[in-house]
User: What shape does this take?
Amino acid sequence: MLHKQPNKKNISFGMKRFLSLILLAGITINGFSQRILSLDSCRNLAIQNNKELRIAQEKINAAHYNRKAAFTNYLPKFDIMATYMRTQKEISLLSDEQKNSISNIGTATGAQLQQQFQQIAASNPLLATVLEPLQGMIPGLTAGLNGVGQGLVDAFRTDTRNMFAGAATLTQPLFMGGKIIAYNKITKYAEQLAQMQHATGMEDLILNTDKAYWQVVSLVNKKKLAESYLKLLETLDSDIDKMIAEGVATKADGLSVKVKKNEAEVTLLKVENGLSLSKMVLCQICGLPLDSDISLADEDMENLTLPNLYTESNVNTALANRHELKSLELASQIYRQKVNVVRSEFLPTLALTANYAVTNPSLVNGFENKFRGLWAAGVVLKIPVFHWGEGIYKVRAAKAEANIARYQLEDVKEKVELQVTQSSYKVNEATKQLHMAEQNMDKAEENLRFATLGFKEGVIPTSNVLEAQTAWLSAQSGKIDAQIDMKMSELYLLKSMGTLK
Assistant: This one.
């Protein structure tokens, strides 16, 4: 049976930790190593081994680093870039026709001079005779001018088939339409949201652990009850056999008892199988091998008590503590900031930029094959002018999403209030049912005692004894169910209020 649980608040933290270590270490009973687990140790094991909580913790870490990354958008960015390019042809500042004309400028000039001499000789032979010595200088002048022209062509060559370039750029945002501020707030709320989701997962895990724990406690006590009932029937069966041998009872009485005995054996088998499966579930939640031999510290508890709680204070506590509500509030804040992000895309932006560029061939002293650079600084202003109303539509869509989040929050608040009220009523109902079950238990025990005495005195038939035993079994089972139901209703109430820890 179950006995009263000690007040855990009177046990110091150090003593509780010491006792938990002893229970986790396990004890040896009759030569076999058995692990005794308390409710706190089961919770600790479940928290340590739960993969979903680890995933939730990694989400918190990711959100934390995203917030740090968003803050860097306030700071100047410095980038370095380098490139090499091999081109098939070099960049030419002169066309092929211009190159040919400049490189043959002497030839063209000599031809024109020869033509001029011929015209002078035809029109004025005397002057032609005077200028004849100069005519011999034309070939030399032609060659010289051709050389000068070729030099000019060579000087205009860029030799850009092998191009090297590098740049160092500094960018400092000055005004981004409020986007940077909004992103920082979003990442801050996202980190808090991840923390709330982790806390919600923690509560769900604790609730599932407690449910599995008390399920095992319930089945352990039902197993004890089934064994006690079977022992009663075995005693009655032995007494009936003796009475049949003495001729004071009929074989029909014996068969009735044996049928009940077989039913009790089947019931005990079902309870044992259910207990084994429930222990496997608890081991799986705690991260233990499924075949671990465990025993629970609360298997012999008799009474479970609940504090006196009031519905109105419970509702207020739930609205202040429920992690789901806090998560929805943060989600609503995120959607409101998304409106600012969308709006910022259609507002002017201003940034300061500065860079230093290096090229080879050089761009600042002809196209010489040397690394030479230059710096530049300025501001970049972007002003959206006309986008056919795109910004208005996107902002309205973002506001609609923010309204959806707000309506969801209001809806969940109403459901939480209803849930807390229902859970409070269930606690009160479970308490009354437990009180009635205890009264039924007292009556059933008294009835069984009188039936057993009457049977031994021979004034009560076997059927009445079997009925008394069946009523006792039902009352005992009802008391166990009422105790576990009361404990579970308390857990659901604490969960609905957000105070399950």
Q: What stands out?
A: The beta strands are 27-29, 32-37, 77-86, 162-175, 294-296, 349-360, 372-382. The chain has 13 helices and seven strands. Residues 1-32 have pLDDT under 50 and may be disordered. The first helix runs from residue 13 to 25.
